[in-house]
Amino acid sequence: IEGFLSSKLRAVKQPASILRNGFAQFWESLYNSHDFNIQEGFIIDKIQRSEDGVTITDNKAGKHEYDFVIVTCNLKDAMKFLDARPEEAEVLNGLNERSNLITTLFSCKHTIDPVAISSWTSSLDPKNEGRLMTVRNSAKIFDPADVGNRERDYLVSYQYVETARKNTTEYQNLLEENLLEDLTSAGYEDITVHEQHVWPYFQHWNQEGISNGHPVTLMKRQGSLRTWFAGASTLFESVHDCMEYNLVLTSMIERRDSGGATK
Questions:
Q1: Cβ distance 124 to 160 under 8 Å?
Q2: Residue 217 and residue 87: Cα distance in Å, rounded?
Q3: How far is CA 108 from CA 119, 142, 215, in A?
Q4: How far apart are alpha carbons 6 and 23 in whole angstroms?
Q5: pLDDT of 145-154, one tens digit each?
Q6: I need a labelling partner for 63 at 20 to 30 A (CA). Which of 146, 149, 196, 208 fits?
Q7: 29: Cβ–Cβ under 8 A, 6 or more apart, which residues?
Q8: What is the model's pLDDT at position 12?
Q9: If we measure between CA atoms, which residue out of 235, 201, 239, 237 comes closest to residue 219?
Q10: Residue 78 contacts residue 95 (beta carbons within 8 Å)
Q11: Is 222 helix (H, G, I), strand (E, B) or coil?
């Protein structure tokens, strides 16, 4: 991995870094620096691409024209709506899930002084899989000074299962049962679960996919059909590798914009 990335990073001028004040500073900087058109609740039905542009059709048949698209979801999941070419389909369908990450939106009685993130590392033990791992309070992250006077907090929980399973109703009920038990034990009161999502986690190519050159093929296709593939599925599930890969993509885009080689 290191050798593959280092061969692509020769033109990168600065290394990856971590912001002093974390993601709150990052998102505030983006919001204050750019004119964003963010659409919430937007469900993609299909993405059609050419060398002239990208058309995204939503689930209400609305069409949206863009100069390019960056795909950051699990890449195998993108096959549900992407007009994949045969080479792309072979690469993306070759991905395999390693485990499950479960996120749940829930609300509870307001805590007077909520913390931004609480974690229980014992849940990473395979013997404790499917138990409560982390609770995130986004409101506290984006406005640290706010202790609030609201009656209820809306939070996101995380659970982890070592081996990916089929997403059945029985499986979902078991995960919710574990979650409610652990949240109650952690001191959360009057809990209501609003939405649960079981994510296929750590998508990766097996040895056959690596031997067939899928990571290299994907890199060579970056920018083709005005499409960029980013996120953990592109290479390896680690913050370091994701950051390094994104720097490679940034370097490729800069070279393209300056008239240099793009592929």
A1: yes
A2: 8
A3: 17, 19, 43
A4: 26
A5: 665 667 888 9
A6: 196
A7: none
A8: 46
A9: 235
A10: no
A11: coil
